[in-house]
Amino acid sequence: MAFLTDLTARFKREHVTLALDDIQALILRSRPEPYVGLHAMLHIDDAEGGRDLIRRMAEHIPSAAGWTDDREAWMGMALSFQGLKALEVPQASLDSFPLPFQQGMAQRSEQLRDVGSNAPEHWDPAFQPGTCHLALTIYARDQAALDVAKAKAMDELGRSHGVTLVAQHAFGADADAKNPFGFRDSISQPSIAGSGIAPTPGQERAIAAGEFILGENSETGAPVAMPDPTELGRNGSFVVLRKYQSQVGAFNDFIRNQASSEADEELLAAKMVGRWRSGAPLVMSPDHDDATLGADPGRNNDFDFSKDPRGLLCPHAAHMRRLNPRDSQLTILTDINIHRIIRRSSTFGPKWQRSLTAQDDKGDSGIFFIFISARAYDTIEFFQQEWINRGNFIDLGEERDPLVGLQEPPGSFTIPETPVRRRIDGVNTFNRLRGGEYLFMPSLSALRWIGNADWR
Ligand code: HEM
Predict the structure, then answer these.
(1) How far apart are CA 297 and CA 189, in angstroms?
(2) pLDDT band at 30 (very low <50, low <70, confident <90, very high)
(3) Best substitution site from 108, 299, 319 to test ligand 1's pocket, by max atoms within 8 Å of Cβ?
(4) Position 11 confidence tier, pLDDT thresholds 50, 70, 90
(5) What's the CA gap between 222 and 242, in Å, rounded?
(6) What is the C-alpha to C-alpha distance for residues 208 and 223, in angstroms, rounded to an integer?
(7) DSSP labels for 164-231?
(8) Which residue has the higher pLDDT, 29 or 381?
């Protein structure tokens, strides 16, 4: 157990093939537990002012080289296409980025199925097209460490010119790392080949580094397309950022109305997620939560669905099984290993309580859903179209993901049972999209390349 929580013990320098000293630490480093942090969104009004800020800020961004060190806080930085344009990065480089990144998240709303109440016209001002140029994230172990890191970042910002702070958002979770719905989150992550970190049980084989780090070989045996020139693209990655407002009270009401006891409520909520609140997987503990299992990194992800082909333990429609079907037989064949993501989401708002009802949903609780992948845009658009807002791949027609689907009446959720399956209606859009952006997370040398305008 100590081996699993002790990164130093799991790290073998002789297994490293990645340029850890050039990769932003945030890509490989998990959030601490507990964690606090800050997202800041900035707009660049003046190219030289923006480059000067990047140059200075890059000095505060740790690399992944010391990622097993016991750090108090770490910062990451990513840029949108409009941000790169505002920094006057050469046109040939801009043209070499993937089209969805060039267009930005709001412009991709159709491909993302971000329509109706999730459409960009309802998004926060910080995410209106062309607004968020640069995103800064600080993760810290405690408030004191966050205050120190934030003061440094704000000091650099205060000394800059031609850059506007558009929005900042604090986040955090307790030691049990529960999200606004009271479920432990960010348990399952891919293992990355060449990072030097041994996989935990259940991570299966390591995924080719090029699925996450640009310039490295991907699962297909070759690198995915990388922005030009190499100095800009190599060792960077792409980031999907989506801000969700959680309707926790409405979710509580829904499970209360469908269940006859508290135990029943817990079972239904677990069926919708695929795990119990503690993180214990349903396939390993089908009848009751098991807090010891949920907290044990040696066991809590060590499962597949081979013993549950019909979904009698964990429904095919559960959020976790939809987004990583593992060895499930799918009606529409998909290579799951090119859809793995490094999740770096952050929770904000009050701690979950059973007593909350829809009346208490004031919009102050939610999740910044963030992931990193070299194929980030293809992956999120595929997820949104096929695995989140449809059910055909698991023979469930138009049924949608019960946590993050954009629901339309009747809002169904199907639980396989014998002799007949149970279908529940009335699932709502429990997480409403309030904005987002497609970002590029450059390597540390690429941040210097941008900051110094090395193309000149
Ligand atoms: C915004 C509200 C969301 C909530 C409350 C939520 C909640 C959860 C929970 C409780 C788990 C299980 C814990 C774990 O295995 O880490 C999970 C897993 C996961 N979620 Fe979400 N999630 C949200 C959004 C999303 C979105 C938008 C996506 C994808 C576009 C997503 C993708 C995943 C993936 C890939 C897993 C891991 C599955 C696995 O590897 O077994 N989540 N989520």
Answers:
(1) 11
(2) confident
(3) 319
(4) confident
(5) 29
(6) 10
(7) EEEEEEEEEE-TT-B-TTS-B-------BTTSSBPPPTTS-SPBPGGGTSTTS--TTSSPPP--SSHH
(8) 381
- Using left for φ > 0, alpha for ψ between -120 and 50, and beta otherwise, residue 193 falls in beta
> Over the stretch 215-265, which tens digit does the pLDDT of each residue have?
999 999 999 999 999 999 999 999 999 999 999 999 999 999 999 999 999
Rounded Cα gap, residues 392 and 399, in angstroms:
8
Of 62, 59, 65, 61, nearest to 18 by C-alpha is 65
DSSP 312: S
Both structure tokens of 45: 């009004």
The residue whose C-alpha atom lies closest to atom 14 belonging to ligand 1 is: 187
HSE value, Cβ hemisphere, 13 Å, CA-based, for 187: 30
Name the DSSP letter for residue 284: T
Query: What's at 25, amino acid-wise?
Result: A
C-alpha 320 – ligand 1 centre gap (Å) = 6
The whole-angstrom separation of Cα 5 and Cα 11 is 11
CB 231 within 8 A of CB 112: no
CA–CA separation, 409 vs 42, rounded Å? Answer: 38
Mean pLDDT, to the nearest integer, of 325-347?
87
What's the alpha-carbon Rg for the chain, to the nearest Å?
21
Domain ranges of the chain: 2-244+437-451, 247-369+378-436
What is the tens place of the pLDDT at every residue in 60-81?
999 999 777 778 999 999 999 9
Q: What's the 91 CA to ligand 1 centre distance in angstroms?
A: 37
**Distance in Å, CA 292 to ligand 1 centroid:** 21
CB atoms near residue 316 (< 10 Å): 26
Ligand 1 site, CB within 6 A = 179, 181, 183, 185-188, 244, 273, 275, 319-320, 323-324, 341, 367, 369, 380, 383, 403-404, 431
C-alpha 319 – ligand 1 centre gap (Å): 7
What is 250-296 written as a DSSP string?
HHHHHHHHH-SSHHHHHHHHHHHHSB-TTS-BTTTSSSS--HHHHT-
Closest residue (by CA) to atom 11 of ligand 1? Answer: 185
Give the whole-angstrom CA distance, residue 96 versus residue 148.
Answer: 38
Q: What is the DSSP secondary structure assignment for residue 385, as one 8-state letter?
A: I
pLDDT at 1 over 60: no
Mutate to test the pocket of ligand 1, among 404, 427, 431, 433 (most ligand atoms within 8 A of CB): 404
